[in-house]
Amino acid sequence: MTKADLVEGIHAKVGLSKKESADIVELVFDTMKETLERCEKIKISGFGNFEVREKRSRVGRNPQTGEVIEISARRVLTFKPSQVLKNALNEGGAPEAAGLAGA
């Protein structure tokens, strides 16, 4: 799904113009981006949580050469789905996938 698909969905379901729908989508994404830049958590009930985590620098290896390199400290974005979303995904799951879960 793309941003254009979201705009089209809002336009079709809510009846706003495409320009208004695009403005709403942009506003939501801008607000989320600004919130995450401040390292604040975003909690969307029934969907999940977005959170920025700090990762320390660490030592890694180049898999081709074995050379030791330092992986710099950075921020990473994590998403944890809500139980409601997990249940919705699993209720509509493929039958063969459900059979493999117990294996």
Plain-language structure description:
The protein is an alpha+beta fold. It has two domains: 1-38, IHF-like DNA-binding proteins (HU Protein, Chain A, Irregular), CATH 4.10.520; 41-92, IHF-like DNA-binding proteins (HU Protein, Chain A, Irregular). The protein is built from four helices and five strands. The chain has helices at 3-14, 18-37, 83-91, 95-101, and strands at 42-44, 48-55, 58-61, 68-71, 74-81. The strands form two sheets. It has a three-stranded antiparallel β-sheet. Helix 1 crosses helix 2 (18-37).
What strand line-up does the widest sheet have?
1-2-5
Helix content: 40-55%
Shape: elongated
Provide the CATH architecture of the largest domain.
Irregular
The CATH topology name of the largest domain reads HU Protein, Chain A
Q: What is the domain total for the residues?
A: 2
The helix-strand sequence is HHEEEEEHH
Q: How many distinct beta strands?
A: 5
CATH class of the largest domain: Few Secondary Structures
Strand residue percentage: 25-35%
Indicate the low-confidence ranges by residue numbers: none
> Helix/strand-derived class?
alpha+beta
Number of helices: 4
Taking the alpha carbons of the first and last residues, their distance comes to 32 Å
The CATH homologous superfamily of the largest domain: IHF-like DNA-binding proteins
Mean pLDDT: 90
